Amino acid sequence: MEPFWKTKSLEEMTPREWESLCDGCGKCCLAKLEDEDTGQIHWTSVACRLFDIGTCRCSDYENRFATVSDCVRLTPQNVRTITWLPATCAYRLLANGEELYWWHPLVSGSGETVHEAGISMKGRVKTSESNLAEPEDYLQYMLEEEP
């Protein structure tokens, strides 16, 4: 029997199936800067104040939208248009008709393979947005490329 992500569209998935697509890389929880002139996205090593650096997950997932005003709820519709989703993101991959990578927990059977493969932000976050006072402070944490 084929796994659900190969037989269902994003729109057909149950909430539980949808949530299981998240590989736990933590890249969505990084601050990203957008060039106003070009629209280019610049990644930083600055994490959302709710990001748990030990688990690479949100520390208050159920209440994140009430706590973080710019937290984005991923939907089958917006994952097709959000430009900052990582290239390795399962939502983006499936929306584009691509396969999940071997390290994705649904494929590997382990939530640790995303970290073992070096895909996640575990150990790579330099600071939290709660430690930064001014928008300019983010510039020192810009990354050369998507992590």
TrEMBL record:
InterPro entries in alphabetical order = Puta_zinc/iron-chelating_dom, UCP006173
Q: Which domain of life is it from?
A: Bacteria
> Which family does the record claim for this protein?
Belongs to the UPF0260 family.
Q: What is this protein called?
A: UPF0260 protein NTH_00674
Q: Which organism is it from?
A: Nitratireductor thuwali
Q: What is the lineage of its organism?
A: Bacteria, Pseudomonadati, Pseudomonadota, Alphaproteobacteria, Hyphomicrobiales
